[in-house]
């Protein structure tokens, strides 16, 4: 048993090292896109905090979702946040699975380049909408009588630029478009395309539907915010995904990286295949002209000879 554990641990360590080298090479080529996407995340948070200064509490608007769904109450507001946190962390962990698992379809750096592109486009539209029409927030801390409903004039520039933690937890006025729904829908659509487990895909969509209802029941957004997010995010992701070059499928072959000589090319091929020369893995990846079919938890590779 101890011999088996040591052997498997050694294989895992080699896989992590080889994958790290591969992802570093990709990060060197694509760091500008990653950095730009992260900067835009901060700009989005800054814009949401800025609109809070203009927010004025008022009567809650008539909403069909509020009429149909019972109110969870302020003491249960954590439920929707818990569901969102689960979706967020699950997706982040999935994007790093190539470092651990032998069977892999994506590159971590490349998948985040696409995800950040989707998020930035959706958040840009969101900023336009909530600055165009500032509605009275339905959340409990945005209602009349709450000291957080309107932010006082900032004492200095640093106070305005600091968006954590209050700017994230106690925002008001950034409506028309649900930020949580943007993240969740982008993550689920990405897994729908690049994930391999059909059951998880079905559960992911179910969780997003439940999260939509919880957001409304928690009175964090109006129903229109959730509805607009559902069709806008899907349209934006569909449009941008068609414009971006298709990401290489690791299960079908290797990605070409800049190489300086034949030996480096051979090493990069091994790294991109996610192994250090495992003969079984080489036999699987030699069927690069085959196709990968999703079937529950299993991944089937069919060569052209079997067609």
TrEMBL record:
A GO-annotated cellular component: endoplasmic reticulum membrane
**In its keyword annotation, does this UniProt entry include Aminoacyl-tRNA synthetase?**
no
Gene Ontology terms: biological process: ceramide biosynthetic process
GO MF entry, a single one: sphingomyelin synthase activity
**Domain Sphingomyelin synthase-like, first and last residues per copy:** 171-239
Extract the coiled-coil ranges from the record.
Answer: none
Q: Indicate where this protein resides in the cell.
A: Membrane
Arranged from A to Z, the UniProt key words for this protein are:
Lipid metabolism, Membrane, Sphingolipid metabolism, Transferase, Transmembrane, Transmembrane helix
Describe its membrane topology.
Answer: Multi-pass membrane protein
Transmembrane annotation, as ranges: 77-97, 109-131, 167-187
**What's the family?**
Belongs to the sphingomyelin synthase family.
Listed name of the protein:
Sphingomyelin synthase-like domain-containing protein
